[in-house]
Amino acid sequence: AIVYHEKCEIDKALDYLNKLPSISLNTIGENHPYVANSYNNMANVYSDKGELDTALTYYNKSLSIRLNTLGENHPDVATSYNNMAIVYSHKGELDKALEYHNKSLSISLNTLGENHPDVANSYNNMAIVYKEKGELDKALEYHNKSLSISMNTLGENHLYVATSYNNMAN
């Protein structure tokens, strides 16, 4: 399913992903991180299809399982909040997107520390939302935070550094 998704064969990816929940539920039960990952992958595909409400439904299922099995301060929970924030951003619900990005950032800072690529990613995503809101100084502030972390952790020739420069130029 993931390979088909990466090949942009969305419907084939969904065919395989739709088989996972029933198999997983019958073998490992409803509250297992593997089931949460399956729902997260389904949400990713629906998001790419532009079916944002369906994506949010699956992200919520994934988040619920992750909270129950992994706790509130786990990087996978941060990933769920980040993914949901991106969907809210695509829906034009920018304040809600920032709320979820802040939840993701808080968990990443607490669990991974200030100098981690996931933290840089959170700052980058928040900067994009601030740009969409027209808060350009705030967007630049967050892009600079993202750039600094990416440079320190990944090196100056990494794609994320180039992405930061591109985003700041925009």
Would you kindly provide a written description of the structure presented here, covering whatever features stand out?
The protein has 170 residues and is mostly helical. The protein is 82% helix and 0% strand. It has 10 helices and no strands. It has helices at 2-6, 10-17, 20-27, 33-49, 52-70, 75-90, 94-112, 117-133, 136-154, 159-169. α9 runs antiparallel to α10. The longest helix has 19 residues, at 52-70. It starts with a helix and ends with a helix.
Name the poorly predicted regions.
none
Strand content: under 5%
Mean pLDDT: 91
Helix/strand structural class: mainly alpha
Distance between the termini: 34 Å
Instruction: Give me the number of helical elements.
Output: 10
State the total count of DSSP E strands.
0
Order of helices and strands: HHHHHHHHHH
| Whole-angstrom Rg | 17 Å
Overall, the morphology is globular
Relative helix content: over 70%
Main beta sheet: none
